[in-house]
Amino acid sequence: TSLAWQFRGQLHLLTGFIAGFVCAFVLLLHIYDVRNGINCSTTISSSSSLVRSSAASMRFAQLQTKSQSESEWEWKAAPVRVLCMVLTCPEYVERYARHVHATWGRRCSKLVFVSSEDYEPLGVVQVVDPQVDSYHDLWNKTREGFRHVWQEYGEQYDWFLKADDDTYVIMENLHHMLSAYDANMPLYFGHQMRRYNVSYMSGGASYVLSREALRRFMKQAYGSNTICPEARKMGIEDFYMGICLQNVGVHLVDSTRAMTYDDKPKFFPLDIENYLYNGNETIPTWLREMSVSEVDTGINCCSNYSIAFHYTKPERMYLYEFLVYRLRVFGRKYVEQLPKRWTFSEILERFPLQNNSEILDLRQMSDKPDNF
User: Fold this and answer.
1) C-alpha–C-alpha distance, residues 144 and 257, integer Å
2) 109 in any annotated domain
3) How far apart are CA 191 and CA 141, in angstroms?
4) For a FRET experiment, which of 53, 62, 271, 313 has its CA 20 to 30 Å from that of 28?
5) Is residue 41 part of a domain?
6) pTM, two decimal places
C-alpha cells in the first residue's frame, strides 16, 4: 500500500511537472517566435501592421481605381458637347436616317435631322420647302440647317457636326480629337480638299465647326453675299461653306494633321472598304487630285482613331456597331493617350489662314465655281 502511495505521489509530481512545462511553453509562444527567435510581440505587432497596411493598400487601390474611373468619366463627360446635324430628305428618312438614329446618332450630345418635311418619330425638322429638296439644293439646306441649329441650340453646345444620312461617325474618336482644341477658337475640321484654288472640307465625309466658327458664319457670313454665297441652287455645299468660313477668319484643320502623334486621315469621303486594299483602283482620280493630304491604301491607310466614313449603307452601320463596340480580341491591351492641348498661337502657326482661301469678294473670283 505504501508503494502504491509513493507511486501515486510521483505520478502527481510528474503530471504537475508536465502541466507546468506545457503552460510555460504556451506562454513562451506568446512571447517568442521559436523558429526565428524574434520577439513574438513584435511579430504580432508587425502582422497587425501588415494587415493594416494591406487594408490601406486595398483602400488606396480602390480609391485609385475609383479615381481613374472618375477621371475617365470626367474626360468622357468633359465639355466636348457635340451637336450632330444630319441632312436627310423624305425619301431617305426611313431608309437611312432611321438607322443613323439607331446607331451612332445615339452618342451625339444632341441629334438633329434637317429635311424638307417634318417627321416627328425621328424629330426631323423642316428647313427648306419640299419643292426644292434635291442635290442642287444642298447649299440651301445646309445654310438653313445651321441657321436653325444656331437659333435653337447655339449656346448649348461646343461643336457642331454636319453629316449626311449615309455617313457613319465614331463619336468617341471625334471627342478624342476635339479634346485638344478650344471651341471658342474659330476652327473647322474634316477631310481637307482644294478646288478652284479654294480649300474646304469634304461634306460627304462630314465636317465639324467650333461654336465660334458657327457664330461667325451666322453673324458675319450668312447675310452677306459678298463673302458668302446667297441661297440658290448649288449642290457643292461643302465648297461654299469653305469660302464662307475662310472669309470670316475660320481656320481649316485637316484631320490628318489634327493630332501631333497621328498623321493619318480620320474623315473619309468614301466607305472604309475602298481604302483597305493595296493598289485599290476604286479610289477615284478626282479624290486623289483634290485631297490636300495624300490618299493612301492598304491596311495602314487610316488612323487608329478614324472618325467618319461616307457612303455607308444601313446594314454596314450595324456591322460597324458590332466591330467597334461589341467585338473584343482576347489578350489585347491598348495604351491610350490624350492628345496635346493646342494653344491658339500654335494653331495660327500650324494652320495659318494665308494657306487657305484669300477670296475677299466672291464677285471678284477669276474662276467661277458651279452655278455661281
Assistant:
1) 30
2) yes
3) 21
4) 53
5) no
6) 0.76
Residue 117 corresponds to which amino acid? E
Residue-wise pLDDT for 188-212, tens only, equals 999 999 988 889 999 999 999 999 9
Amino acid at 131: Q
Backbone angles phi, psi at 87, to 5 degrees: -80, 130
User: Span 144-150, mean pLDDT?
Assistant: 97
Strand 192-195 relative to strand 198-201, pairing = antiparallel
Tell me whether residue 114 is in a domain. Answer: yes
Residue 39 lies in a domain: no
Scored b (16 or more CB within 10 A) or e, 103-134 reads bbbebbbbbbbbbbeebeebebbbbbeeeebe
Contacts of 198 (CB under 8 A, 6+ apart): 239, 242, 243, 246, 357, 359, 369
CATH code, domain with 203: 3.90.550.10
* Domain coverage including residue 320: 82-327+338-364
Cα–Cα distances (Å) from 206 to 26, 71, 240, 266, in that order, read 81, 30, 14, 11
As for how many domains the chain has, the answer is 1
How many angstroms separate the CA atoms of 233 and 242, rounded? 17
